[in-house]
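**User:**
Everyone, produce one record:

**Assistant:**
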Amino acid sequence: MTWHERINIALEGRRAAEAFRVRKVVENGAGRFLSREGLRFCNFSSNDYLGLSQHPQIVRAWQDGAARYGVGSGGSGHVSGYTTAHQALEEQLADWLGYPRALLFISGFAANQAVITALMGKDDRIVADRLSHASLLEAANLSPAQLRRFAHNDAPQLSALLDKPCTGQQLMVTEGVFSMDGDSAPLGELHAIAQKKNCWMLVDDAHGIGVMGDEGRGSAHHQGVKPELLVVTFGKGFGISGAAVLCSEAVADYQLQFARHLIYSTSMPPAQAVALSASLKVIRSEEGTARREKLTSYIQRFRQGLTTLPFQRTDSLSAIQPVIVGDNRRALRLAQSLREKGMWVTAIRPPTVPEGTARLRLTLTASHEPEDIDALLEALHVASQ
């Protein structure tokens, strides 16, 4: 079989399964409205949960940062790319979340891969929730450690897996809020089990940070849990991009020695770090609290309305509100129907989600208005007839 034959077979398989992914060019992808080809859609696919991507203070902070530092960092943080802006942001994050250290990464995917591959050895074991994000599972598969998965949020099965003999160290991996179902992990119960087994816990809180808990400190703080490793990302609640790992002094120093993503990647632009500091300030302010309260009211409004419709929903109390359809083709038709009514909605299909659980991954944001939620519910009602 040639290279071209192999590639074409794989592509045809995706097309036949109605699972072929296509990017759509848009004029802007965040905020209440999305524009494409001269048309405007109410945006229900953005992860900009607090609506901060276009916040004037944060935009101005990035501009001021670019004027001071330029538009790039110039190198790895180990060479010349670790500026006073990066240092200030790391210190602010550590203080906010109650950890000795924070390390910045260019993305959440990079952060998860860096931490897991640097820490794990061939005699170690990773025990991960089956629905953990692709970045976590891929990092586990690429590491020399053994990977075992436990059923979604199943604490007894986690305990049983951790009881199995292991000559090395064990790391339990989960998410604070799961990206496709929108539900939360029982972090307190999981962490208690891990501690009894001398196992460390890594929580990826991409979809909880900035949005949940006091001052938006996220899922772990909200549940009174302090995992040994906390990964927070900035492309959702913060409205920007990038990530940080919160950890102990020793783990931070270890990562600086052995995490190849840190050593060999150009660091994020200092102007981005300045903007992230500005975003953090908004998140911690009264304005941030008001935006979270507004988002919570929309979540309640939507979930109450969804109970009257013939769709399967999840236990999500987060900004992620999936509508489970099941069949790939039906999910695509439903998404198209909503777009024809002026709503930008994305159909998520396997392999991103398990077979038979194709869905509309609807996301609500503080940028929406009550009439947007009502219009979405009405469109779903009409489409279900």
